[in-house]
Design a protein that fits this description.
The protein is an alpha/beta fold. Helices cover 41% and strands 16% of the residues. A 5-stranded parallel β-sheet has the order 2-1-3-4-5, with helices on both faces.
Amino acid sequence: MDKMHCLKGTKILCVDDNSEALYLISLILQRHGAEVITCNSAEEAIGYLNSHKFDIICSDIDMPPGLDGYDLAHALRKMESDDPSRVVTPSVAVSGNAKNPNIKKRFADFQVYMLKPFDPKRLVDVIQRLVEADGASVRAGSLESWEAEQKV
């Protein structure tokens, strides 16, 4: 498959309260063939998660007021643990907050953490690799293994 269509058929839920950031991420992923649903809040995203299946969740972290990206990821993991037939949905945390002392704890429900601004090619690569990975390697809390792999 050519690089521009490497995400063809991949269903991605993108969540960000910043409409410009949401548009940019959505555009990048759509240009690589992904089917993207966008939400401006964690509450809206949880509504979609209750009725739709996605291959990947890509969420901002800081989304005031109300629920934030941590709450969204936690709700997703609870849905998965409550329903044994539901597979783990890999999730990517996207944040502009580089100064988080508890990053490993805070992103335990995400597989990958990306700092804004990010390299669009890396975002596409990370999502493609998450889609292609087996279930064991995309379990919640696998952030450290992805970080180590990126440094190789």
